[in-house]
Amino acid sequence: MSNTTQLLRFITAGSVDDGKSTLIGRLLHDSKSIFEDQLSAISRTSEKRGMTAVDLSLLTDGLQAEREQGITIDVAYRYFATPKRKFIIGDTPGHEQYTRNMVTAASTANLVVILIDARKGVLTQTRRHTYLASLVGVPHIVLAVNKMDMVEYSEDTFNAIVAEYRAFAAQLGIHDVTCIPMSALNGDMVVEHGDNLGWYKGAPLLDFLENAVIDYDVNTADFRYPVQWVCRPQTQEYHDFRGYMGRIESGEIAVGDEITVLPSGRTSKVKEIVTYDGKLQRAFAPQSVTLTLEDEIDISRGDMFVKSSANPPKVEKEFEAMLCWLSEAPLDRNRKYIIKHTTRMVKSLFSRLEYRVDVNTLAHHETDKLNMNDIARVAMKVQQPLALDHYSKNRSTGSFIVIDEATNNTVAAGMIA
Questions:
Q1: Is the Cβ–Cβ distance between 40 and 142 less than 8 Å?
Q2: N or C: which end of the chain has fewer CB within 10 A?
Q3: pLDDT digits (tens, 9 = 90+) for 39-61
Q4: What are the E-state strand segments in 213-303?
Q5: Could you tell me the pTM of the whole model?
Q6: Could you tell me which of 225, 385, 377 has the C-alpha nearest to residue 292?
Q7: C-alpha dihedral (203, 204, 208, 210), degrees to nearest 10
Q8: Which residues are CB-contacts of 245 (< 8 A; sequence separation ≥ 6)?
Q9: Residue 19 and residue 147 in contact, taking contact as beta carbons nearer than 8 Å
Q10: Which residues contact 17 (CB under 8 A, 6 or more apart)?
Q11: Closest by alpha carbon to 391, among 169, 137, 129, 103?
């Protein structure tokens, strides 16, 4: 397989017992992406439970507590590949008390597969997971109406569920939704079309995943380059070399382009683009490169290069954001926290809590505290200015994490609103 094969990150979400883990197990099994010893192990476990068929959900429910309870608690990641594409799958928990697990998994996903039990239809959990997917900006949604075998593969049942879901998704501004009926247990419409859903003319799930267009998920227009390291080799050959190392988070850059360094506002031109195997004339996101400039400028870790000619980010010391509180310890409004935004770390204060979102009803409630799994709109002040983009335009420069400076624990994840 070529090293340039495109990678798709996707997660599965749904209510308890909708069949998320079984679906992933079916994908792995039918695409021949599991080893014989894995299959033998889950076969033995299935026999001990008195099952007549192999329980494919055991491929992802790896924690002992999960297997004992028959639910998914942590995010289980699995990796597989086909000749067309490589995949990273995140099997996220369905319970409301594990909202933070889904948010962190979805933050890097290109696509989310939301499962619905065909017998139950659109539930509160379905709406919650759709809202969370829209909150963290997942570009593509697949609605997988599972357990069609339990409703005799009824086309009318499928159409009714799809109509209700699309109406809800439209309220959140979501329009890129692909709806697929399936039976993960029997394998219908997962890898193969199967014999029971002849009325559905779309592609099976795996075929859709292989061909989903994700080239435009990265912002290719706005150049953003947070400096990770200033490279000054202490050798005779490179004594005068000064390079700025980092990863291009979005956009592209070429030798000779004029850049602005934020937050200082100083400008220069790109002299060289250096990589581990030579020099380039042009580089694109998400390449990691070293840039040298024509001018001597005071630049350090946390500064950001942007193109001088187009659409710069806002440089702010006060901003508003949507925040998911991850920590078991509640927010303390009287304390300072550290914000890590790209490669810059600054101290911050929560100046206001605008409202808390009820993730089940999407209602807004006034609040003066945040507990674990709460999602809220907040206003923040930072000691040093940050170069910020709106999260919907740039997931890298529009997001941040909040760190407890006493424990170094990550306590929240935020999206610039």
A1: no
A2: N
A3: 566 666 666 666 655 555 555 55
A4: 224-231, 243-247, 252-254, 258-262, 266-275, 278-280, 282-284, 288-293
A5: 0.81
A6: 225
A7: -120
A8: 227, 228, 229, 230, 231, 288, 289, 290
A9: yes
A10: 70, 71, 117
A11: 137
Q: What is the pLDDT of residues 160-204, one digit of tens each?
A: 999 999 999 998 888 889 999 999 888 899 989 999 999 999 999
Residue partners of 299: CB distance under 8 A and separation at least 6: 227, 230, 244, 261
Interior CA angle at 15 toward 165 and 31, to 5°? 90
Distance between CA atoms of 379 and 369, rounded to whole angstroms?
Answer: 13
Helix (H) or strand (E) holding 132: helix 124-135
- The full set of domains in the chain, from first to last, is 7-217 (3.40.50.300), 224-307 (2.40.30.10), 314-416 (2.40.30.10)
Sign for the pseudo-dihedral over CA of 299, 300, 301, 303: negative
Q: Angle 193-197-203 (CA atoms, 0-180°, nearest 5)? A: 40
- Rounded distance between C-alpha atoms, residue 212 and residue 130, angstroms: 19
Paired with 185 in beta bridges are none
Exposed, middle or buried by CB within 10 Å (0-12, 13-18, 19+), for 84? Answer: middle
Indicate the residue type of 288. S
